[in-house]
Design goal:
The protein is an alpha+beta fold. 19% of the residues lie in helices and 31% in strands. It is globular and about 55 Å long.
Length: 170
């Protein structure tokens, strides 16, 4: 994956945004695993507000979850109980949505797709795999997290341990 170029990355945003799905100048859908729900403080023009957030296993930042996304979760999983969503995989995408701050304009918003992600069999990463040298270099650069790698490969505990040793200290 290349360096992210969206200008919003310059602001170190606290919450997940459409720009976090950007790579190579376009937004890319991501299959993510719901880890938990919670509340977080968001500072807006109205002041401080408590917002419901979703934490995904594959991202360090949380996503503010609106009613539209909750309705989609309810429809997909047949339940309104958030506990039923924990551990489930969803596809996160971007959609053009009405801008609440400027009527008549649109922005790129994060949306949970209405359908479940397709089940796919990932190839297993081994030390003899043709991508192994490139993976080692990417992990060692600090720009490619192991969680991202797991979107593309099955990673055994032994391989993950070896790759973890390559992660630069912060």
């Amino acid at each position: 994956m290349t360096d992210q170029k969206h200008w919003r990355h310059l602001f170190n945003e606290k919450f997940l945004g459409s720009w976090d799905l950007e790579a190579d100048g376009k937004f890319n859908d991501r299959v993510l695993t719901i880890e938990r729900f919670g509340k977080s403080e968001l500072v807006t023009e109205k002041g401080k507000e408590q917002k419901v957030v979703i934490k995904f296993k594959e991202f360090p930042k949380e996503m503010v979850c609106n009613k539209t996304n909750f309705k989609r979760l309810q429809e997909m999983f047949g339940s309104f109980d958030t506990n039923a969503f924990i551990g489930k995989k969803i596809t996160l995408t971007t959609e053009r949505v009405k801008n609440p701050k400027e009527p008549g304009t649109f922005v790129d918003g994060l949306r949970i797709k209405k359908e479940l992600p397709p089940e796919k069999k990932l190839p297993t990463l081994t030390a003899s795999h043709e991508r192994w040298p490139a993976v080692r270099t990417a992990i060692a650069s600090g720009n490619f997290p192991i969680a991202e790698l797991k979107q593309h490969f099955q990673v055994t505990p032994e391989i993950e341990g070896e790759l973890t040793k390559l992660i630069p200290a912060k």
